[in-house]
Amino acid sequence: MTVLGYVALFIASVVITLAGCTLFTNGIEWLGKRMKVSEGAVGSIFAAVGTTLPETSIPIIAIFFGTGQERTEVGLGAILGAPFMLSTLVLPILAGLLVLYARMGKRAAVFKLEYGEVRVDLQFFLVGYGLAVGCAFISSRPTHYLAAALLIGLYLYYMKLKLSAPSEQEGESGIDPLIFARRSVKPSYWLIGLQGLIGLVGLASGAYLFVTAAKAVAAELEVSPLLLALLIAPLATELPEMSNSFLWLYRRKDRLAIGNVTGAMVFQGTFPVSVGLIGTEWVLAPSALLTMGLALVAVGVSFGQLLWGGHWRPWLLGGSALLYIGYTLYLYGA
What we know:
Layout: H1 3-35, H2 39-65, H3 69-103, H4 115-135, H5 141-163, H6 189-220, H7 225-237, H8 239-250, H9 254-268, H10 271-279, H11 286-309, H12 314-318, H13 321-333
Helix pairs in contact: 1-2, 1-6, 1-8, 2-3, 2-9, 2-10, 3-7, 3-8, 3-9, 3-11, 3-13, 4-5, 4-9, 4-11, 5-10, 6-7, 8-9, 11-13
């Protein structure tokens, strides 16, 4: 394929992703409104789980249906890559975009959040992922099975807390008309579901085209496979979450934007990890343990900001990107 072909593929991936993002975010907001759940639950549960389902299938298929040692490496890489990317890259990018949008005059350079919700998300992630790290130093399989059960139970309890939170008053948070039913003031569940499903397919398709183009370009430039796995593949799998959050942040719907990311972190730090604990020996290489440790450090610093000052400072939140950059340089020199 020519350079123009790669460029066209990248453009197509962006267009499809943005179209899918628009359909999905609009549909998921209406689902939350019809079910009378809070914005925090919409972002942390509905949007987060919906956008993580495609990438969650990768470790499940690799571990339980793959063959050879490679299946374990692929599965564990998919499990551990998502929390690392979300905590050290996606949240810092959101902080940078907040500042950028402010300088463009689109909004103020301050997150408008219910920080109590954010603290809950970060606490659940720290507990769940911390348990997973501890299991890496214990070779007992029964202990791993017990930890997996605890992680699944932890996420179910998290869902219960989120879904039981009181909904906002009618009209408190404006929602555009459902794209598939613009004249309806109360669109049906099946239209909402159809629009959300098509949007989710668009997000997954856009991410697939993106990683296909990126791999081809990386091969042409003779980029290291290790750097490809670190920088390009995880970026593509997290593209749905990033796209949704970027759009919501631009529209000043910060609870949805941040909840989509922190909710995805809770899910990725519990359910896929439980798959790894059950389906593998959970023997992690030092580089894999390092990604887990860096994710915990990044989230710990974000959580510490809330305990110390009660809110996030964009410049300090963006500082977690240094962990991602440092790890990239470490792998490049290894």
